[in-house]
Amino acid sequence: MSRFVRGAFVVTIVLSAMAGNAAHMAYRDYQDTLQRRYSLVRDMSKVVEEHVHRAIRGAAISLDQTAGMVAEAGGIDAIRDMDHWMRLREAAAHVDGGETIWIFDAEGRSVMESLSYPGRSADVADRDYFRASRESDRLFIGPAVIGRTAEKRMIFTISRPLRDQDGTFIGVVAAGISVDYLTDFYDLLGFDYNPLIGVYRPNGDVVARRPNMREMVGRSVADGLLFKTKLKEAPEGLYISPSVLDGTSRIAAYRTMRDYGLIVLTGIDEAEAFAEWRTRSAYMAAEALLASLVILLTMGWGLRYLDRERRTQIQLTEARASAEQAGAERDQVTRLAAELKRAKEVAESANRGKGEFLAGLSHELRTPLNAVIGFSDLIAREAEGPVGTPVYKRFALNVRDSGQHLLELINEILDHAQAEAGCLKIEETTVDLDAAATFAVRMLTPRAERAGVTLAVSVAPSVRSLRADERRLRQILLNLIANAVKYTPSGGSVTVTAGMEAGALEIRVTDTGLGIPAEDIDRVMEPFGRADTAANRRIEGTGLGLPLTRRLVELHGGTLALRSTLGVGTTVTARLPGARVLPPNIPAAPPPAAERRAPMRILVVDDDPSIREGAAMLLQSWGHRVTLAANANEALVVLSGTEPLDLLFSDVVMPPGMPGTELAKHARRLRPGLPILLTSGFAAHAVGAGDDVAADIAMVAKPYASADLKRHLDRIAAERHPSDTPFAPSSTAPAATIMDAPMTESTPPASSSVRKPRLLIAEDLDMNRELLAAIFRSSGYSLDLVADGRAAVEALRAADYDLVLMDVHMPGMDGLEATRIIRAMPSPRGRVPILALTAGNMPEEIDDCRRAGMDGHIGKPYDRERLLRETAKAMAGAHAPGA
């Protein structure tokens, strides 16, 4: 490219940039000017509207007073005296800009006017205002007209009808108002421009206008942009348009007058409004041109100078290229370093989240495993005497409850994994929402009662029936209610409501619990995310419940929203499409009495004798025949035999031996088509017995309400055909029986004459306290048990102990805070050995224990030998010389 071409190209770019900048500045100045002019005409319209409204309002009041005078006198013929004329004059004096007030009879003939007595004669039967007032009771505001007087003054008329007590039309009272009153007022406003001021009737007729009012009498603006378009879009606004009356383009503002429907228009000539802007733009253009000339001269000189330096530049080209390459490489290195830093931060954040989840999961799994392993060890060693004593039954129940807690955790983790992999599916059926909500509340009532929390449920009848996956719907309700109970302190409440809102089904779970900080609301909806508050950290959880629930709601085409106030409570709303709600079912005619009384042959299986006998009595009171089995093996004997059966009613959890879910599978094999109804008191079973069990197996919560159980039985009975025979076995199977060993209460070992080491154990879980008590009492220790850190501190203040076993995570005051308070006590109580009991095994958690002043830690689940060894070691170290 030649030097001339390069120079011309550069000059073109510079001049284009300057011209573009000048145009941009002129455009911005234009917009600013336009907005100021819009603001001016808008303010003008408000002032004019208020003035016109006040004038018409004053005239309307005077006309109402005149009508009252006529009514008071008893009719038009009774007011033709001087006294009534004086009153008419007084009313006319209060009309701003008023010319006169006329009273006309029903034929349009004048009766009285305010200017003279007895008044001039006039006939207005053909006038618009007379005809309008005769046909309507509304106030009529007429267009501007030229008066019939010698002065030919322009007026507009305001009129209203006169009626007697029977409502019969007897005349019209009208006030003539001078248009000059309005135009003279506009001249007093002192506007910088010669504005357009217009007042128009709703049909476009001119009532008042400046300038050139006399030329506008009898004209209309109905064909203009204002009436054709703008008023249809909005009752007030701004626009630029030529006038249909004089052709002048104006910046205008319009308003619809309240009460009377008149249109007020104010505007200023567009040419006059932008005159200053055009002057400024001309100056800017001149400045830009002058600057362009200066730049051209400068660049001409620069090109000559550059020509002289061309050879030097050629020599420096390679050096510059090398420097640029080095700079590019440096920029690339900097960019890569920044990307690596961001990737490192993302990885560290993911690692932290994974670490927090693993720490929480470790604690969640170790806590129930502690009871499972500990109590199993006590049973295996016969620590409380021979197996069969009643205390072992309590140990077995603790093992069972801990196992169920583990099952809930594992199911939650597996469901989350399925959701992440996109493998979660729903199987839609017709679901009774009220029954599902009642089921969930009843399932969680024991947990809520232990926590001192009140549960309530309310489902609108109109949304009771819907299309959904019943198992997943129960899981949604159980997750939300269980979460609310977990984070609600004693004395609080949890309320479940369901109803239609804005065309969608809304299920709300509201609690009066701890609440969630605003900055943590998005976090708790993500997997493994939990609110980062001291109160929430003391409550166990994996952080999977809400994300899993949201995924289940989304599978139904809905959304999950959370609203919370810290210290007040939380509301979680599951919003499902309204199309899922089915019309309320019309109750079918009740079956004949003979069919309702037809008994069924029911096999009841439950390991708890009281529940088993209670269920039998209830079913027998309804006329059914009942066969009882204490466990799955006894039930298999019946199922393998020839006894006819119509229903298998079994508990899910029956330790030891086969659970109810496994029994259901065998029942399907032995008695094909036999209806099965399962019952459980554990929330993990409430959403179904498991993915490997048929979906048509129903579940009833324990303790079950008689109405709920009867509803299931009625459904099963209704599905039976009168000609059906009981379900017979398809094959026989060898019978086996597993009987529970008898259990008896044990007594603590007798005290010896030697003083036993005295231990203080602080543990919030009842089963863990019982486990530790069983381990240490059988090993020769004296124990005091407390349920939280505050009680441990009070116990240390009241008595001396050889060792304190302190759980780290406890409600109220946790173990770390309690240890710090104990260490602040005077010796020797302040120096008592303290061992941490914790399900966490992360290095950070162990360091927290040591910083709080603990002498060591014992991880959960407990190993009896290590527990006793660490306890003896800690006490020996405390009593060693110099300790």
CATH class of the largest domain: Alpha Beta
Task: Assess the beta-strand content as a share of residues.
Answer: 15-25%
Radius of gyration: 47 Å
- Number of H/I helices: 24
* Structural domains: how many: 4
CATH architecture of the largest domain: 2-Layer Sandwich
Enter the CATH topology name of the largest domain: Beta-Lactamase
> Which structural class best describes the helix and strand composition?
alpha/beta
Distance between the termini: 93 Å
Coiled coil: 323-350
Catalytic activity: ATP + protein L-histidine = ADP + protein N-phospho-L-histidine
Subcellular location: Cell membrane
Domain Response regulatory: 601-717, 758-875
Describe the protein.
- This protein has 883 residues and is α/β, with parallel strands linked by helices.
- The protein folds into four domains: 36-273, Beta-Lactamase; 427-580, Heat Shock Protein 90 (2-Layer Sandwich); 595-719, Rossmann fold (3-Layer(aba) Sandwich); 758-879, Rossmann fold (3-Layer(aba) Sandwich), CATH 3.40.50.2300.
- The chain has a five-stranded antiparallel β-sheet, with helices on both faces. Strands 7-6-10-9-8 form a five-stranded antiparallel β-sheet. It has a five-stranded mixed β-sheet with strand order 12-14-15-17-16.
- This is histidine kinase.
